[in-house]
Specification:
This protein has helices at 22-33, 59-69, 81-88, 102-111, 126-138, 153-163, 183-186, 195-198, 201-204, 206-217, 251-257, 259-266, 387-396, 412-431, 437-440, and strands at residues 13-18, 49-55, 75-76, 92-95, 115-119, 143-146, 170-180, 221-229, 307-314, 319-328, 331-339, 342-350, 361-367, 373-377, 410-411, 435-436. With 451 residues, the protein is an alpha/beta fold. It folds into two domains: 13-148, 3-Layer(aba) Sandwich (Rossmann fold); 150-385 and 408-451, 2-Layer Sandwich (Dihydrodipicolinate Reductase, domain 2). The strands form two sheets. A nine-stranded mixed beta sheet has the order 14-13-12-11-7-10-9-8-16. It has a seven-stranded mixed beta sheet with strand order 3-2-1-4-5-6-15, with helices on both faces. Helix 5 (126-138) packs antiparallel against helix 14 and helix 6 (153-163) packs parallel to helix 10 (206-217). The longest helix has 20 residues, at 412-431. The two termini are 32 Å apart. Bound molecules: nicotinamide-adenine-dinucleotide. Residues 159-435 form the Gfo/Idh/MocA-like oxidoreductase C-terminal domain. InterPro entries: Gfo/Idh/MocA-like_OxRdtase_C, Gfo/Idh/MocA-like_OxRdtase_N, Gfo/Idh/MocA_Oxidoreductases, NAD(P)-bd_dom_sf. Residues 14-147 form the Gfo/Idh/MocA-like oxidoreductase N-terminal domain.
Length: 451
Amino acid sequence: MTEPNEGEAMQRTRYAICGLSNRAIYEYALPLLGGREWSAPEEDYSGVGELVAIVDIDQTRVQRFLERTGANVPCYSPDDFDRMVVEQHPDQAIVAGPDFTHARYAVSALEHGLDVIVEKPLAHTASDARAILDAEQRSAGEVTVTHNARYEGAAGRLRDLIRSGAIGTVISVDLVEGVDTYHGASFFRRWNRRRSYSGGLAVTKGCHTIDLINWLLADAPQSVFAHGGLAFYGPESPHRPRDRAGALLGSSDEARLNPYAQRWQTGRVPEDQTLFTGEWQSLGYPAQYPEGEIRGIFDAEIDIEDHYSALIRYTGGATMAYTLCFSMPWEGHRIGITGTHGRIETESIAYRQLPESSEPTTIRVDRLFGPSEVVSVVSEPGGHDAADARIRRDLFLPSPTASGTNAIRATGFQGAIAVATGEAMARSIAERREIVVAELLDLQELPEWES
Ligand SMILES: NC(=O)c1ccc[n+]([C@@H]2O[C@H](COP(=O)([O-])OP(=O)(O)OC[C@H]3O[C@@H](n4cnc5c(N)ncnc54)[C@H](O)[C@@H]3O)[C@@H](O)[C@H]2O)c1
């Protein structure tokens, strides 16, 4: 168990979780409840933190969770947030429900002067993100966005290399990100498939990578031009099973012959993506996904893109060519960073059908007129290459640098930049023009990146 320092036993930080999501259960609720067989000893934060309330639309789901864990935590409905604060006196709100709910809870918590931890993305739209920033300005509370990609081992090495001047001034980044046919397809069955809930995948998923590159370059995107659309999922999918004459099949035949569904049933499921099989999935979502409602990846209500190619210009002059696709044979990314004095290349690719690779991720540094080097980054067990464990240490332990790294926490403003850049990708596709990121946040220009 993570012990509090001497004299701190009576001062555990009081947390209220808003949205008992799959993410909230693993990342926050279980570590805060701690001391039970489902939480590893080093992941037990019950000595320093206390879960004092859960806010969720789904009382059945929350009760099932409390029964399963034996925890006694008061549960509130969304309209009772203010009453919850008065009755339970939380110090911090953890906002971890679907993206469209983030602004509502973050703003209310800030109005009460609470600190707020918000799951990425900060919000599903730039205007909601701006509302959170405005509330933060008026509040004694502070916003932290859980951009956990910053905490992956390779991210820190890349940042150190760039900061050390190993490749000079960064000129351009080329990045291909793939989300595979198992994980990628899952978004098209869940709430994420509606723009009004997630902002689209460039926001809800792309924000990880956009923020990572912003953080590596210590700079913010100034403008975005993008192409993209829906090519793999939705009613016109080329993978939708049809009969010989091209007519649609009945729902059970369609489900049986759906190649993505076959992948879900046979593919190896990595530890951090037990989307349909994880232990806590059996709690169900009676409110969010009512029983009997069938959600398929070819449904007409899907209104988001499944692939993007964006050209992003940073305020400091660097550019990024970013391709993001949600139906790839592999999961991961290939990144190239070109500087005035050399180039860095790295990749992290997993094929779901193959056994987990034990090969370390390598970062190759080629100097234009100097020696090359290959840096190995050993991957660690745990969610998102141990990034989840590291970010929890930063969030829950008193020291601001608990992870041993400096300037790694994502601020509200940095979270807002990632949201606005993702939204700019979707807007650029729809409006066929370059989008200025600052305008989406209602700013004349972006302030300097805090690093
Ligand atoms: N950092 C990461 O790596 C990571 C990974 C996965 C998800 N996430 C983020 O975590 C959040 C949760 O995603 P998930 O897929 O785990 O969610 P989920 O679908 O598993 O759970 C959503 C929960 O929110 C509840 N809910 C719905 N509407 C609500 C409302 N208005 N008020 C309160 N509760 C409400 C549902 O009942 C359910 O308990 C999202 O913001 C997502 O983007 C982050």
